Amino acid sequence: MSSINYAEKIPNNVNLANDRTLQRALEHWQPHFLQWWHEMGPTDFESADVYLRTAVSVDAQGWAHYGAVHMPDYRWGIFLADAVPDRKIGFGDQMGAPAWQQVPGEYRSTLRRLIVTQGDTEPASVEQQRMLGHTCPSLYDLRNLFQVNVEEGRHLWAMVYLLHAYFGRDGREEAEELLARHSGDADKPRILTTFNEPMRDWLSFFCFTYFTDRDGKYQLKSFAESAFDPLSRTCRFMLTEEAHHMFVGETGISRVVKRTLEVMKELGTDDPARIRAHGAIDLPTVQRYLNYWCSSSLDLFGSEISSNSATNFASGMKGRPDETQYEDHVLRGKSIKLLMPDGEQDVPMLNALNEVMRESYLRDCEIGLKRWNRQIERAGHALRLTLPTSRFRRSIGPWAGLPVSPEGKLIAKEEYEKKLRAWIPTETDQAFIQSLMHKVVAPGKMAGWIAPPERGINNLPLEYEYVNLH
Ligand SMILES: [Fe+2]
Ligand SMILES: [Fe+2]
């Protein structure tokens, strides 16, 4: 197990002290990162003491340390999972050959683009969430928001390390650009659409951490398979942190549903107007938020048919999540039937990997749905929350811009436009959700639209002061 050296300016387990040039380059980038955090990170909470976990080792048994930290003093560092001795490439045309410890020249620009695109999402989400602290439903939630934020900051470090260490001057320039683009900026937006969408409320935050961070999980899982070993090791450790982000989303939505069910029982009604008047979020509105954020995240996997996906896989740059679960790791000569707007089509499997990934992502998304629906069922209600199909509200690929219902049926454009208001949040919904967003910061207290969590953080009681605002 490689331990992390905290005496250094940049905590790391990559022996940074032995590579002075790289160390100097990253120490040059560090103040730029801190400046970005100051300007674009969570607003107004820099002096708060936040009960955060910080990575202190990459050991599966106890890799994190918990304690009160001012966010700007968080020890963002570079942590790679331990190397697998003699690791071999696990898929693609070079399967069985030794994994790459350096970037092969012919894949340099593609690998750089993949790393930059992943890296861009990390600070983007921090920017999207920067105002949420002002409307937190509890100190527990405020702490979780900040935990997610500092870890997305660390994920940026993870990608910037790869750019600096393996991509020379181009990599250093890309690292600067990662701080120059901003979420929603008219001139210099973030690369992917979902990461430019504004996030004004906590229901959106929970949906984002549930759906969009889960896309992150799937991207990281596919990079964890990469033949480029430093990328694989970086992503394997990032996945450890990522699990918490989805926990925040899953339990957040679950607590919203729980509170709504309590209010429904109390009032003896499922009338959305009466539930809303009581300060809870009716389930149809929850469904519309799920539809919105799930479909927005579906595009992140790219087009159904993609020559890039074929190249990335065949070359060994990017595998499928959990590659070992499959029997065939080369996929030459394989094909798959995909449903296209004009009927079923036979597509070479290598070109359909985005869709394979998207479908396994959707299956992973079902886990939370099952749990929330069990709550609803136990409360004696017939309504069930559902996921839209992968064809709903797409902006990329053959289904882009087509009038498809959440169930996946191609319908008339007029019908689609009329019904869309029932499928995704309306302005009225958004205004209602906004009206619930008030800061609750008394230790142990919760906003009225969300139930308390089942337990506190790191075995602490729920009443613990997870954020000391002074
Ligand atoms: Fe991340
Ligand atoms: Fe995340």
Kindly name the structural category: mainly alpha
Mean pLDDT: 95
Total strand segments: 5
- Gross morphology is globular
Bound molecules: fe (ii) ion
**What gyration radius follows from the Cα positions, in whole Å?**
23 Å
**How many individual helices?**
12
Main β-sheet, spatial strand arrangement? 2-1-5
How much strand content do the residues show?
5-15%
Oligomer status: single chain
Biggest sheet layout: 3 strands, antiparallel
Contiguous uncertain segments of 5+ residues: none
Termini distance? 39 Å
Order of helices and strands, N to C?
HEEHHHHHHHHEEHHHE
Q: Percent of residues in helical segments?
A: 40-55%
Q: What would you note in describing this structure?
A:
Helix 3 (139-166) packs antiparallel against helix 6 (229-267) and helix 6 (229-267) packs parallel to helix 10. The chain contains 12 helices and 5 strands. It has helices at 20-40, 108-128, 139-166, 168-180, 202-224, 229-267, 272-277, 283-298, 307-315, 353-378, 413-423, 427-436; strands spanning 49-55, 64-70, 335-340, 343-348, 467-468. The model has no long low-confidence stretch (mean pLDDT 95). 47% of the residues lie in helices and 6% in strands. The chain has a 3-stranded antiparallel beta sheet with strand order 2-1-5. The chain is mainly α.
